[in-house]
Structures are given as structure tokens and as C-alpha cells.
Amino acid sequence: MTLPLKQSYPPMEAKSVTQLPADDDWQYEPKWDGFRCLAFRDGDQVDLQSKSGQPLGRYFPELVDALLKLKPKQFVLDGEIVVPVKGKLSFDDLLMRIHPAASRVQKLAKEHPSQLIVFDLLVDDRGKVIVESTLSDRRKKLDAFAKKYFPRDSKHKSIELSPETKDLKIAKSWLAGAGGDVDGVIAKRLDLPYESGNRHGMVKVKRLRTADCVVGGFRYASEGKLVGSMLLGLYDDKGLLHHVGFTSSFKASEKPALTKKLEKLIKPPGFTGNAPGGPSRWATERSAEWKPLATKLVIEVQYDHFTGGRFRHGTKFLRWRPDKKPAQCLLDQVKG
């Protein structure tokens, strides 16, 4: 058998907005705090694909096993991988799974099994591609798929159906409670097909505005040889990496290890568009004192405003994002 959808099929993406759309054309879902995942089943083969198109199966062997136990022999699901710990989702435990040693991964999988929370169906149980169907139709088919095939009687449900609502009041209540398992709220257009690889027809609202950025360079602190700040970059539609701000919110105890990590990646040019020290009303005497990095690292930061092509203030470092490619860090995620 051969699946009609091939890896690496780009998943549908969401644009960050400040308010949930309020008309009747939208479906609302919780935004889970995990790794985006497309799950491909083709006979005895299961592949888990990250948002950036990278294989995830080796890091979540228990999910591969669970998907192989489902009755249909062919399907493609879109969802989020999460790791529950003591009744709460733990992103730190999720990150620990990205480890080179299979024995370590197996140990972690037994200690805290992961879950796949499913919110879309791209290939149905007959092996038919349904990405051209509207979300309204796809969700009906997903609900039927989940009711028929998802495990219901196990203590730990490794595959679960994500809730959805068309009631804005319920969506706002999810948003008000965001910050625990729920990272925010996703809104999707009911009348559109699956928008692979773009941000048409899907938006996300978080209580805290966040962005995924490339670390394009760093500055040393004014005293000593430890890192003072990491310089953040976002790509435009021409593939140029623009300097958009900085983050310096890391603990003093973390700076020696972070400095070594960054120094190993020093390599020009870093930024290929607007660079630190270029013509800008933010430029200072220290603007030129920075080290360019190979574009390998992606971090998630929290910010308040993005204006004039930059974060207005310093951002807050939230976490490393090894599951995302630098090329996915685009300016359109922060532009209104």
C-alpha cells in the first residue's frame, strides 16, 4: 500500500492575532502546549512528522505502537503530542524526549507516556485524501473516526480527540483559563479546505503573545566574557533574516553553559537583512559589538508589542524549540 499523502506534507499553520474572530464561520479549539505532529499510517508502518518535517517516531515509540493498534491500515491524522505529568501537561518533559539515546527515550516513555491529541483528519480510514473537503466535513469524519477507532477503556489514553466548539463564549472561557494545559485558543474557518503550509483560515490567540525566533547572534555582557543578550531574527518572504530584537532574561547560573553553546556556533553573517548596528533609531554605541551565529537555534519568546519591524521592548525567553526549523520563523507570525 502507498499513502496518497507523502511526507513531508506541510501542516496547516496559524497566524497570531489579539482577538478571536466572532462570526459564525469559525470553529474554536484549545491550543495545546506540545509538539505539532502529523501521524501517517500505511499498513505496518507508522511515521510521526514534526511541524518542520522532521521524523519524531523514535522519540515517541509508545505513540507509534498505539497508532499501529488502531484498526484502519491507512490514515493521516493531524494533532499535538503532549506529555502529561501528575495530571498536567509538561513541556519540559516533552523536550526531554528529544534525546539521542534510545534507551533514555524508552525509560522516559515508561515513566511518563505521551499522548496524541487529534484535531484533524487528512486521509480517512479508507485511505482517501480529504484535505480538499471543508473543515466542517472533515471534523464530522474525524468525530466518526474517533468514535469508531480511538481507545476508550484504557487508563492512559494515548490517542484522544481534541474538543471543539462553535460557541464564542466557550472559546473565551478556554482563553481565560489559558496558561496551564491550554496554551491559548485556535480558530479555524469552517468553509475552507486544509490549508497546507500556510496561515490562511487559521488564527491563534494566546493570553501571552509569543513568537518563535532564530538566534542570529549574541552580545557579551558589558563586563566579563559571558553572554549578555541573544539577538533575535525573523525571515521575510524573500528569505532574508532580519534582526528584530533581543532577549536577556536568563539566570546568571545559566550564562556559562549558554555562552559556550553560542560560541560554538559563531559564524558570519548571522543576519542577512537588517542587522544590529544598521541604520535604525534603536542603534547605540554598543550595537556593533555583537557576534553572528550560524542559524541553528530557535527559541520562543514572550513580547508585548511589535512595531516598526522590531519588538518594542526586550522579550522574555520562554524555551528552546528544537522541534522547529529556523526557516519557519517568519515575520508574518507577528505582523497584524
Short overview:
By secondary structure, this protein is of the alpha+beta class. It has helices at residues 61-69, 91-96, 102-111, 135-149, 168-176, 255-263, and strands at residues 15-16, 26-32, 35-42, 45-50, 74-82, 84-85, 88-89, 115-123, 159-161, 182-189, 202-205, 210-220, 227-235, 241-247, 291-292, 298-302, 306-307, 310-311, 316-320. Strand 8, helix 4 (135-149) and strand 9 (159-161) form a beta-alpha-beta unit.
Could you walk me through the main structural features you see in this protein, from its secondary elements to its overall organization?
This protein is α+β, with helices and mostly antiparallel strands and 336 residues long. The strands form five sheets. Strands 12, 13, 14, 15, 16 and 19 form a six-stranded antiparallel sheet that branches. Mean pLDDT is 91; it is low at 278-288. The chain folds into two domains: 15-205, 2-Layer Sandwich (D-amino Acid Aminotransferase, Chain A, domain 1), CATH 3.30.470; 210-333, OB fold (Dihydrolipoamide Acetyltransferase, E2P). The chain is globular, with a radius of gyration of 21 Å. Helices cover 17% and strands 31% of the residues. The chain has helices at residues 61-69, 91-96, 102-111, 135-149, 168-176, 255-263, and strands at 15-16, 26-32, 35-42, 45-50, 74-82, 84-85, 88-89, 115-123, 159-161, 182-189, 202-205, 210-220, 227-235, 241-247, 291-292, 298-302, 306-307, 310-311, 316-320. The protein contains six helices and 19 strands.
